[in-house]
Amino acid sequence: MGHIGEEVRRLREKRGLNQAELAVAIGTGPSAISEIENGKRNPNSTTLLKLAHALEVEVAELFPKVQAQLFDGPDAPAGERRVPLSAEEKLKSFAVDEQRIVWMVVDREAQLDPPDELSYQAMHDFTARRLGELGLTFDEAREALPRANPLLAKEAEDQRKRVQGLKSKARRRSTAANETA
To answer: Rounded to an integer, what distance in angstroms lies between the CA atom of residue 94 and that of residue 144?
Structure first.
């Protein structure tokens, strides 16, 4: 399955840019572009927005396109039955990078370092479009993601616990400060 970097390379070359030119356009070094294109580095939400702007595309276009075969139909090859996929199976068709963005949107309150509002809106729009393509709602995605990617689910649960711990610690400090005041 492809990764964001392959799409960045394809779009960069389509625009006639070299890595150094794209790096200057987004305010980074050519080595960062190389690492992204070779799948050694995942761009954060801010970098995704900068890449999309520099390449004159929407953020969603930076992600590899996956065409899932979802249903039986007249176009199905003879003898091949396509059954409806579960929400979990549909989400498995997303690249891991896409799954992370979907998770950040559907489980926003669990983020230690939530994205700024502009980045969040771009990720929300991307998620809504991608889920819509597969006929999924945000609630279905929230429920199915842990089964689609158990490692991501574990990572998110660990982060949720850290966030809850930090919030609890902040409440205790606030209470202690009020008591001493």
So the answer is: 13
Residue 1's pLDDT band, with cuts at 50, 70 and 90, is very low
Q: What is the CATH topology of the domain spanning 1-65?
A: 434 Repressor (Amino-terminal Domain) (1.10.260)
Q: What is the pTM of this model?
A: 0.50
Q: Residues 107-111: contacts with CB within 8 Å, 24+ apart? A: 107/142, 107/156, 107/160, 109/163, 110/156, 110/159, 110/160, 110/163, 111/159, 111/163
Rounded to whole angstroms, the Cα distance separating 76 from 72 reads 6
Phi, psi of 153 (to 5 degrees): -60, -45
Q: Where are the chain's structural domains?
A: 1-65, 83-181
Yes or no: say if 82 and 76 are a contact pair by the CB < 8 Å rule: yes
Rounded CA gap, 71 and 34, in Å? 39
Side chain identity at 78, as an amino acid letter? A
The torsion of the CA quartet 37, 43, 48, 54, rounded to 10 degrees, works out to: -50
Angstrom distance (rounded) from CA 146 to CA 97: 15
Q: Pinpoint the alpha helices (H) of the chain.
A: 4-14, 19-26, 30-37, 45-55, 87-92, 96-106, 117-133, 138-148, 150-180
Give per-residue pLDDT as tens, 105-156.
777 666 656 667 777 788 888 888 888 888 888 888 888 888 888 888 888 7
